[in-house]
Amino acid sequence: EIVLTQSPGTLSLSPGERATLSCRASQSVSSNYLAWYQQKPGQAPRLLIYGASSRATGIPDRFSGSGSGTDFALTITRLEPEDFAVYYCQQYGSSPLTFGGGTKVEIK
Amino acid sequence: QVQLVQSGAEVKKPGASVKVSCKAYGYTFTGYYIHWVRQAPGQGLEWMGWITPNSGATNYAQKFQDRVTMTRDTSVSTAYLELSSLRSDDTALYYCARGYRSSAFQLWGQGTLVTVSS
Question: From the candidates A97, A98, A103, A104, which should be mutated to test the interface with B, based on the most B CB atoms within 10 A?
Answer without folding.
Answer: A97
